Amino acid sequence: MNRRVLVLPDRDAVARTAAARLLVTIQDTLSTQDEAHIIVTGGTVGIQSLAEVAASPLSADVDWTSVHIWWGDERFVPTGDPDRNEGQAQEAMLGSLPLPEENIHRMGSASDFSTAEDAAEAYRAEMEAAGDPSWDVLMLGLGPDGHVASLFPGHVSYTEGGPEAYAVHDSPKPPPTRVTLSRETIQRAKRVWVVASGAEKAQSVAACVHGDESLPGAVARGTDETLWMVDAAAATGI
Ligand SMILES: O=C1O[C@H](COP(=O)(O)O)[C@@H](O)[C@H](O)[C@H]1O
Questions:
Q1: pLDDT at 203
Q2: How far apart are CA 186 and CA 217, in angstroms?
Q3: Weakly modelled stretches of the chain, pLDDT under 70
Q4: Residue 142 phi/psi, 5° resolution?
Q5: Which of 86, 55, 82 is nearest to 72 (CA)?
Q6: 51 in a domain, yes or no?
Q7: Are the beta carbons of 194 and 229 closer than 8 angstroms?
Q8: Ligand 1: distance of its center to the CA of 124 in Å?
Q9: Domain Glucosamine/galactosamine-6-phosphate isomerase: where (predicted)?
Protein backbone atom coordinates (compact mmCIF):
# COMPACT_ATOMS: atom_id res chain seq x y z
CA MET A 1 0.00 0.00 0.00
CA ASN A 2 1.28 3.41 -1.01
CA ARG A 3 0.62 5.36 2.22
CA ARG A 4 3.06 8.21 2.86
CA VAL A 5 3.30 10.50 5.88
CA LEU A 6 4.49 14.08 5.69
CA VAL A 7 5.31 15.48 9.14
CA LEU A 8 5.16 19.27 9.45
CA PRO A 9 6.01 21.48 12.41
CA ASP A 10 2.53 22.61 13.41
CA ARG A 11 -1.10 22.94 12.40
CA ASP A 12 -0.54 26.12 10.38
CA ALA A 13 2.13 24.34 8.35
CA VAL A 14 -0.21 21.39 7.71
CA ALA A 15 -2.93 23.72 6.45
CA ARG A 16 -0.53 25.73 4.28
CA THR A 17 1.01 22.60 2.81
CA ALA A 18 -2.33 20.93 2.09
CA ALA A 19 -3.54 24.13 0.40
CA ALA A 20 -0.42 24.51 -1.73
CA ARG A 21 -0.54 20.86 -2.79
CA LEU A 22 -4.22 21.18 -3.62
CA LEU A 23 -3.71 24.23 -5.82
CA VAL A 24 -0.76 22.67 -7.64
CA THR A 25 -2.63 19.38 -8.10
CA ILE A 26 -5.64 21.19 -9.52
CA GLN A 27 -3.37 22.95 -12.02
CA ASP A 28 -1.65 19.66 -12.92
CA THR A 29 -5.03 17.95 -13.33
CA LEU A 30 -6.38 20.72 -15.55
CA SER A 31 -3.31 20.44 -17.76
CA THR A 32 -4.35 16.91 -18.73
CA GLN A 33 -8.15 16.86 -18.36
CA ASP A 34 -11.06 19.29 -18.70
CA GLU A 35 -12.33 19.20 -15.13
CA ALA A 36 -10.98 18.60 -11.65
CA HIS A 37 -13.23 16.98 -9.03
CA ILE A 38 -12.23 17.69 -5.46
CA ILE A 39 -13.79 16.39 -2.26
CA VAL A 40 -13.30 18.69 0.70
CA THR A 41 -13.69 18.03 4.39
CA GLY A 42 -14.86 19.75 7.51
CA GLY A 43 -12.91 19.74 10.76
CA THR A 44 -10.36 22.08 12.22
CA VAL A 45 -7.38 21.50 9.92
CA GLY A 46 -9.62 20.77 6.94
CA ILE A 47 -11.35 24.14 7.13
CA GLN A 48 -8.08 25.93 7.89
CA SER A 49 -6.63 24.34 4.74
CA LEU A 50 -9.53 25.72 2.70
CA ALA A 51 -8.91 29.18 4.15
CA GLU A 52 -5.27 28.86 3.07
CA VAL A 53 -6.40 27.99 -0.46
CA ALA A 54 -8.45 31.18 -0.61
CA ALA A 55 -5.55 33.23 0.81
CA SER A 56 -2.93 31.82 -1.55
CA PRO A 57 -1.82 33.96 -4.50
CA LEU A 58 -1.78 30.71 -6.53
CA SER A 59 -5.56 30.55 -6.38
CA ALA A 60 -5.81 33.54 -8.75
CA ASP A 61 -4.21 31.40 -11.47
CA VAL A 62 -6.71 28.53 -11.25
CA ASP A 63 -9.57 28.29 -13.72
CA TRP A 64 -12.20 27.70 -11.04
CA THR A 65 -14.92 27.27 -13.66
CA SER A 66 -13.36 23.86 -14.38
CA VAL A 67 -13.23 22.77 -10.73
CA HIS A 68 -16.03 20.87 -9.01
CA ILE A 69 -16.30 20.73 -5.23
CA TRP A 70 -17.89 17.80 -3.38
CA TRP A 71 -18.05 16.72 0.27
CA GLY A 72 -16.99 13.55 2.06
CA ASP A 73 -19.62 14.01 4.74
CA GLU A 74 -22.09 16.50 6.07
CA ARG A 75 -24.02 17.19 9.21
CA PHE A 76 -27.79 16.85 8.68
CA VAL A 77 -28.87 20.10 10.33
CA PRO A 78 -30.66 23.11 8.82
CA THR A 79 -28.95 25.33 6.27
CA GLY A 80 -27.16 28.13 8.09
CA ASP A 81 -26.44 25.99 11.18
CA PRO A 82 -22.80 26.64 12.16
CA ASP A 83 -22.23 22.86 12.23
CA ARG A 84 -22.70 22.55 8.47
CA ASN A 85 -19.41 21.60 6.81
CA GLU A 86 -20.50 23.35 3.60
CA GLY A 87 -21.26 26.56 5.49
CA GLN A 88 -17.81 26.53 7.07
CA ALA A 89 -16.26 25.86 3.65
CA GLN A 90 -18.30 28.69 2.16
CA GLU A 91 -16.94 31.11 4.72
CA ALA A 92 -13.36 29.83 4.52
CA MET A 93 -12.98 29.43 0.77
CA LEU A 94 -15.94 29.11 -1.54
CA GLY A 95 -17.28 32.61 -0.95
CA SER A 96 -14.06 34.21 -2.14
CA LEU A 97 -13.42 32.09 -5.26
CA PRO A 98 -15.07 32.52 -8.65
CA LEU A 99 -16.63 29.05 -8.56
CA PRO A 100 -19.86 28.70 -10.53
CA GLU A 101 -22.70 27.68 -8.21
CA GLU A 102 -23.41 24.60 -10.37
CA ASN A 103 -19.88 23.33 -9.63
CA ILE A 104 -20.56 23.22 -5.89
CA HIS A 105 -22.12 19.89 -4.96
CA ARG A 106 -23.40 20.29 -1.42
CA MET A 107 -24.98 17.47 0.51
CA GLY A 108 -28.57 18.33 1.39
CA SER A 109 -29.53 19.87 4.70
CA ALA A 110 -32.43 19.38 7.09
CA SER A 111 -33.95 22.47 5.49
CA ASP A 112 -34.04 20.77 2.09
CA PHE A 113 -34.94 17.19 3.03
CA SER A 114 -37.05 15.60 5.74
CA THR A 115 -34.64 12.71 6.29
CA ALA A 116 -30.91 12.12 5.97
CA GLU A 117 -31.78 9.09 3.83
CA ASP A 118 -33.44 11.42 1.31
CA ALA A 119 -30.42 13.73 1.35
CA ALA A 120 -28.09 10.76 0.78
CA GLU A 121 -30.23 9.49 -2.09
CA ALA A 122 -30.17 12.94 -3.70
CA TYR A 123 -26.37 13.02 -3.37
CA ARG A 124 -26.06 9.64 -5.04
CA ALA A 125 -28.23 10.96 -7.88
CA GLU A 126 -26.04 14.06 -8.13
CA MET A 127 -22.90 11.93 -8.40
CA GLU A 128 -24.54 9.79 -11.05
CA ALA A 129 -25.71 12.85 -13.00
CA ALA A 130 -22.10 14.08 -13.00
CA GLY A 131 -21.01 10.74 -14.51
CA ASP A 132 -19.78 9.25 -11.22
CA PRO A 133 -16.62 11.32 -11.35
CA SER A 134 -13.30 9.90 -10.51
CA TRP A 135 -12.21 12.18 -7.67
CA ASP A 136 -8.85 13.83 -8.29
CA VAL A 137 -8.27 14.72 -4.64
CA LEU A 138 -10.28 13.64 -1.61
CA MET A 139 -9.39 15.47 1.59
CA LEU A 140 -10.26 14.07 5.00
CA GLY A 141 -9.82 15.24 8.56
CA LEU A 142 -9.17 12.65 11.26
CA GLY A 143 -11.07 12.75 14.55
CA PRO A 144 -9.27 11.88 17.80
CA ASP A 145 -11.21 8.57 17.74
CA GLY A 146 -9.86 7.71 14.28
CA HIS A 147 -13.01 8.62 12.33
CA VAL A 148 -12.90 10.05 8.84
CA ALA A 149 -15.87 11.60 7.01
CA SER A 150 -18.78 10.30 9.17
CA LEU A 151 -17.44 6.75 9.43
CA PHE A 152 -16.95 6.14 13.15
CA PRO A 153 -15.01 3.24 14.67
CA GLY A 154 -17.20 0.43 16.03
CA HIS A 155 -20.35 2.21 14.81
CA VAL A 156 -22.73 0.82 12.17
CA SER A 157 -21.74 3.77 9.98
CA TYR A 158 -18.45 1.91 9.52
CA THR A 159 -19.11 -1.72 10.39
CA GLU A 160 -22.16 -2.11 8.13
CA GLY A 161 -21.40 0.47 5.48
CA GLY A 162 -23.89 1.28 2.76
CA PRO A 163 -24.25 2.61 -0.77
CA GLU A 164 -22.02 5.34 -2.23
CA ALA A 165 -23.49 7.96 0.13
CA TYR A 166 -25.71 7.06 3.08
CA ALA A 167 -27.34 8.36 6.23
CA VAL A 168 -25.69 8.04 9.63
CA HIS A 169 -27.74 8.14 12.83
CA ASP A 170 -26.62 8.37 16.47
CA SER A 171 -23.15 9.56 15.53
CA PRO A 172 -20.88 9.45 18.59
CA LYS A 173 -19.79 12.98 17.73
CA PRO A 174 -22.54 15.60 17.57
CA PRO A 175 -24.58 16.43 15.61
CA PRO A 176 -26.03 12.89 15.61
CA THR A 177 -27.49 12.77 12.11
CA ARG A 178 -25.20 12.94 9.13
CA VAL A 179 -24.59 11.85 5.55
CA THR A 180 -21.33 10.19 4.61
CA LEU A 181 -19.58 8.75 1.60
CA SER A 182 -18.90 5.04 1.90
CA ARG A 183 -15.49 3.50 2.42
CA GLU A 184 -15.61 2.19 -1.19
CA THR A 185 -16.44 5.62 -2.60
CA ILE A 186 -13.53 7.11 -0.68
CA GLN A 187 -11.26 4.41 -2.07
CA ARG A 188 -12.30 5.33 -5.61
CA ALA A 189 -10.43 8.64 -5.35
CA LYS A 190 -7.11 8.99 -7.12
CA ARG A 191 -5.52 10.86 -4.23
CA VAL A 192 -6.63 10.63 -0.62
CA TRP A 193 -5.09 13.16 1.73
CA VAL A 194 -5.66 13.02 5.48
CA VAL A 195 -4.85 16.13 7.51
CA ALA A 196 -4.48 16.00 11.30
CA SER A 197 -2.88 17.98 14.06
CA GLY A 198 -2.56 17.87 17.82
CA ALA A 199 -1.35 15.42 20.46
CA GLU A 200 -4.92 14.20 21.10
CA LYS A 201 -4.81 12.56 17.66
CA ALA A 202 -1.37 10.94 18.00
CA GLN A 203 -2.62 7.50 19.04
CA SER A 204 -5.19 7.30 16.23
CA VAL A 205 -2.76 8.65 13.64
CA ALA A 206 -0.24 5.94 14.59
CA ALA A 207 -2.85 3.16 14.55
CA CYS A 208 -4.19 4.25 11.16
CA VAL A 209 -0.76 4.66 9.61
CA HIS A 210 0.18 1.20 10.90
CA GLY A 211 -2.93 -0.23 9.23
CA ASP A 212 -5.29 -0.91 12.15
CA GLU A 213 -8.51 -1.19 10.14
CA SER A 214 -10.70 -1.05 13.22
CA LEU A 215 -10.21 2.68 12.65
CA PRO A 216 -11.82 4.19 9.53
CA GLY A 217 -8.78 6.37 8.95
CA ALA A 218 -6.81 3.23 8.09
CA VAL A 219 -9.03 2.39 5.12
CA ALA A 220 -8.81 5.89 3.67
CA ARG A 221 -6.65 5.28 0.65
CA GLY A 222 -6.52 6.46 -2.93
CA THR A 223 -5.86 4.53 -6.11
CA ASP A 224 -2.74 6.59 -6.91
CA GLU A 225 -1.75 8.25 -3.66
CA THR A 226 -2.48 8.12 0.05
CA LEU A 227 -0.85 11.00 1.85
CA TRP A 228 -1.08 11.93 5.50
CA MET A 229 -0.13 15.51 6.35
CA VAL A 230 0.25 15.72 10.11
CA ASP A 231 1.96 17.99 12.57
CA ALA A 232 4.75 16.93 14.90
CA ALA A 233 2.39 16.56 17.88
CA ALA A 234 0.09 14.22 15.95
CA ALA A 235 3.04 12.21 14.65
CA THR A 236 4.56 11.29 18.01
CA GLY A 237 3.10 7.76 18.06
CA ILE A 238 4.21 6.72 14.59
O1 LIG B 1 -17.24 15.63 12.38
C2 LIG B 1 -16.29 15.73 11.65
O3 LIG B 1 -15.01 15.63 12.15
C4 LIG B 1 -13.90 15.39 11.33
C5 LIG B 1 -12.61 15.79 12.03
O6 LIG B 1 -12.76 16.98 12.74
P7 LIG B 1 -11.55 17.67 13.56
O8 LIG B 1 -12.10 18.96 14.06
O9 LIG B 1 -11.17 16.72 14.66
O10 LIG B 1 -10.43 17.89 12.59
C11 LIG B 1 -14.08 15.96 9.96
O12 LIG B 1 -13.08 15.57 9.11
C13 LIG B 1 -15.43 15.56 9.38
O14 LIG B 1 -15.57 16.02 8.04
C15 LIG B 1 -16.48 16.10 10.23
O16 LIG B 1 -17.80 15.94 9.78
A1: 98
A2: 11
A3: 1
A4: -115, 125
A5: 86
A6: yes
A7: yes
A8: 21
A9: 9-228
Assign residue 204 the CATH number of its domain.
Answer: 3.40.50.1360
Nearest atom, ligand 1, residue 142 CA = 5
Q: How far apart are CA 170 and CA 164, in angstroms?
A: 19
Q: What's the whole-model pTM score?
A: 0.97
pLDDT of residue 1: 65
| Atom number, ligand 1, closest to the C-alpha of residue 140 | 12
The verdict on residue 164 lying in a domain is yes
Does ligand 1 lie within 6 Å of residue 41's CB atom? yes
Domain contains 222: yes
User: Of 164, 211, 221, which is closest to residue 191 (Cα–Cα)?
Assistant: 221
Q: Does a structural domain hold residue 238?
A: no
Asked whether 176 lines ligand 1 (CB < 6 A), one says no
Cβ atoms within 10 A of the Cβ of 65, count? 11
Domain count, the chain: 1
Residue 96's domain comprises 3-231
pLDDT of residue 129: 97
